[in-house]
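Notebook entry, structure prediction.
Reason for the run: the old model in the group folder had no record of what sequence produced it. Starting over properly, with the input documented here first.
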Amino acid sequence: MKKVTIGYIFNEEKLTKDEEAFLELAGSRGINLVMINTSKDISEEDLKEKAKKCDLFFNNSAEEFSTEIVKTLEEMGEKVIDSSKKLYYEEDKWLFFLKCEKNKIPTIRTILLSENINTAKKELEKFNSWPVILKRVQGTMGQYVDKADNLRKAEHIIKKFWKKGSERLPVIAQEFIRSSSYRVTIIGKEIVQTAIKKSNGWKSTGVYLKDQNVESFEIDNELKKIVKKIVKVFDIKICGLDLLKKDGKWLVLEINSDPALDFFENERKKLIGEALDFLRNQCKSRRRNKHKKRN
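New structure, fully documented this time:
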């Protein structure tokens, strides 16, 4: 059988440990990797040529431009894991909350704030949860996330968010929960890693030191049910699920389709190997489906 070929989408000035491990482990598995670095110049014609070689594509970048490359490939009829439609609920934290609420997935109490600052202040007074977490509906690595202890501080943070960046994105308010951040990494439908992200401050998501303040934890039956439901509802194939705990109960914080695979350096290659095995099976399944359609 012809070797499986996977297009690997990333956004880096040079190869990181992840890219080096993907290339090494793909080679040992007989998988061809076609590297697509969205930080470099890439044209539609370049993409078309690369697409001819690939069974499918894997997006390992959370950068906005990479998402546009994913959409372009999908318009060409190519399959990308994960698809731009799946990213929709990851990118927009308000829509993520609404989808969780609709499907009875336990999550954090959240409101969408008005773009009128006086109305937003009234909404926060009615929400009446201090301190409160304020976030732009879009943002990665803990950017555009802050905590306000009172209405005056909240107003300052909202105005600061509106001034930063090239566009004025909506802001949500969330109940502040004093908790470590729990990460569950999922490949396919399987939980492949757990990690408690500890922090000396109130923020334990975003950028943090690996290994030194992270440890694994056991999955209980309640969390297994939540993960199973998340996988079914959001249908993201490779993801990281962030959760908090309140009064001993799990609450889903957000989902990441570009999960960090380096919480534990000694498990990096194990996770990348499992991701490659999953992607290879997806390639083979796609080939079988194409063969059936031709016949």
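Summary: The first strand starts at residue 5 and ends at 10.
The old model has been moved to the deprecated folder.
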